[in-house]
Amino acid sequence: MSEAGGADRPATIGDVAAAAGVAASTVSRALNNPGRVNARTRERIEKIAAELNYVPSTQARALSSGRTRTVALLVPDITNPFYFDLIRGTQHQLKAAGYTQLLVDTEESAEVEAEALDRLRTATDGVILTASRLTDDQIIATHRTRPMVTINRNAGTVPTVVIDTPTALRQALDHLLALGHRRLAYLGGPVNSFSNGLRWKTLAEELSARPGLEIVRLGPFAPTMTSGGPAVEAVLNAEATGCIVFNDLIAIGMLERCRARGIDVPGQLSIVGCDDIFGASFCHPPLTTCTAPIERVGQVATTMLLSQINPGLVGRAQSRRSLTLVPTHLTIRSSSGPAPVPVVAERSRDKDRV
Fold first, then answer.
1. CATH architecture of 70-163+294-309
2. pLDDT, tens digit, for every residue of 117-152?
3. For the HTH lacI-type domain, which residue ranges apply (predicted)?
């Protein structure tokens, strides 16, 4: 059979319908809802469609079935290695379920994020928001219009996956305390970041259980390596011997600045990051950081979203689940070590030996 579409254009649903001797609506049902068409007719239509190399458009599938088989993943910064494994986790899970992933970089901007959500309203079956910069009211209102899951952002009853960073932060505090550190700094991230607020809240609350330990809040800093230089200056001015940093990108930037200035890490300053991104284990020195199974986070979020899109595919317990915590732990590497001995104490000991 020759291609009805001709050399200049691809075959259309009308071409398939004409060749099969049926209405275009019958072709649509046969290819999108095969259970609604007689088996013999369906097989004939499928055979003709294959011979004509007919490929249904996303728009046509959406019009006939109300589904695009596409899910949008919105991330604040596509260049941040933290999102690499997350993107992989969501994509693998979506592919296995027969969905295509649409990746959107929202550029750390609430305005860009809101505009993207508005434009994607009819182009996707659901949305995964990562570290959203929108307000709670905006997220809740958007969830009313479509299936949605958030990652690291708890807004009302909107289904969410939260990385349990507080557990690893407590371990980080105990680790630095055991190394003799008594004055720490927290290098904060964006002011509208849910994760940033949660991390500072955790650290502040944990001080009461650790007498003799103090921590000063510095920042905010942009969550990029270029913030490492200003962050080092802020820590030195605060006279802290150790610090916990909003994310690994800032922490790695701090390591680079310390090396350029001849500041010994961890001899003069201990640095602990968050996220355990690609590169944290082979920077110089390797970074002590809070570790989470990021790819698993993406998989869990995708499963939660698909349970909204196709409630019949999962159990009732999964459909009702609104919050899932993913565990974390502290990974100790070479960027943290014993607190430096104060210069005054060193001189005192020298005097005693004379």
1. 3-Layer(aba) Sandwich (3.40)
2. 999 988 999 999 999 999 999 999 999 999 999 999
3. 11-65
